[in-house]
Amino acid sequence: MNNPSNKRPPKLRAPAYPVVEAGGMVWTYLGPKEKQPPFVRYKYMDLPDNHCVVFRVDTHANWVQTVEGGLDSSHVSILHTNGARPEWTGKSEEKVGSFADTEPVLEIEDTEFGYHYAAFRRNHAGQMDNVRIVPFIMPSGRIIPGGALQGRNNATLALEIPIDDEHTATYTVRYGSEPITRESRLVEMGFDDPEIYCERTQQFLFTRNDFHRQRRDLMDHNWSGFRGIATEDLVISTSMGPIQDRTKEHLIGSDLAVARFRKRLLDSVERMERGEDPIGVHADVGLVSAIDAPLPQSGHWRTLIPTHRVAAAA
Ligand SMILES: [Fe+2]
Q1: For the chain, what is the mean pLDDT?
Q2: Domains of the chain (ranges plus CATH)?
Q3: CA gap 208, 166 in Å, rounded
Q4: How many other C-beta atoms can be found within 10 angstroms of the C-beta atom of residue 25?
Q5: For the whole model, what pTM was predicted?
Q6: Whose C-alpha in 6, 116, 144, 182 is 20 to 30 A from the C-alpha of 69?
Q7: Centroid of ligand 1 to alpha carbon of 283 (angstroms)
Q8: How far apart are CA 77 and CA 101, in angstroms?
């Protein structure tokens, strides 16, 4: 001890929070003790270990930017053109599901856990035949259906966790009915390149300062100038700067899910200011899923995900 008086403050304690280890991660609760909800398991946690791959990637961007980029369903057909629309160069006849339709029609609905939305796409004959349903789990999670681009029998849970105002830790869990290797996931994300992703520090290494090292010389056959789906996503999140100036943006129809995210977030803040619980805190995330499927012949799209509970009207 370096204190000659040898007197310790009698009630000196470090803050501590409860944790649960599950699904390849350590989960904690930071709220008031008396309001701690029971730990709820995501569906993937019941799969064999070799059916799930967990990654963390830290980026220099506010968490809202990383959430909003992923929530825009139409971005898949545009940002990920090389994977989703390989026919764009004119050198391939390959069609990947309905992703050739870059103008999906969106519908949205509030649920107990946040909201879910459907993106309807037309097939190559111009008929609406595919629906892609993505749930947004308040305040920062979503499940991405595999579909034609990333494998029909799997899905990806993405959680955007703020580190501070300008940095985000994105946790992704790829899971499915078949074993998945860490190596294949690294390649898909574009993180097998040590100049893009550092596995030791879990950091995304490209920055605005080096123009994210975009390969403009390859863009006659590489639409974005990058390799890897996650790399393309993270370039978008970070290229607008750590905190985007929202006074200069122009939301359009395809930003429906982005606008709803902001509304649900502000509604949640208002609830907390009234002393109520935030949206989704008691929802059973084990019942939440995503799907990319043929459009049902009849009935509402939500019948494809019958475990989602629609929110009661305010
Ligand atoms: Fe994306």
Answers
A1: 93
A2: 41-304 (3.90.380.10)
A3: 14
A4: 15
A5: 0.93
A6: 182
A7: 26
A8: 7
Could you say which DSSP state residue 213 is in? G
Could you report the per-residue pLDDT of 209-242, keeping only the tens digit for each?
888 899 999 999 999 999 999 999 999 999 999 9
Tokens of 222: 């590489």
Task: Find tokens 């929530």 and name the residue.
Answer: 71
Mean pLDDT lowest among 23-27, 141-145, 150-154? 150-154
Cα 220 from Cα 17, distance rounded (Å)? 52
- Separation of 76 CA from ligand 1 center, angstroms? 5
Q: In this structure, are residues 131 and 301 in contact, taking their beta carbons and an 8 Å threshold? A: yes
Separation of CA 170 and ligand 1 centre (Å): 13
- 85: CA distance to ligand 1 center in Å? 14
- Going from the Cα of 70 to the center of ligand 1, the distance in angstroms, rounded, reads 6
- Cα distances (Å, whole numbers) of residue 40 to 80, 98, 107: 33, 34, 28
pLDDT at residue number 314: 61
Q: Are 137 and 285 spatial neighbours (Cβ–Cβ below 8 Å)?
A: yes
Cα 72 to ligand 1 centroid, rounded to whole Å? 8
The Å distance, Cα 296 to ligand 1 centre, comes to 25
- The CA 120 to ligand 1 mean position distance, Å, reads 17
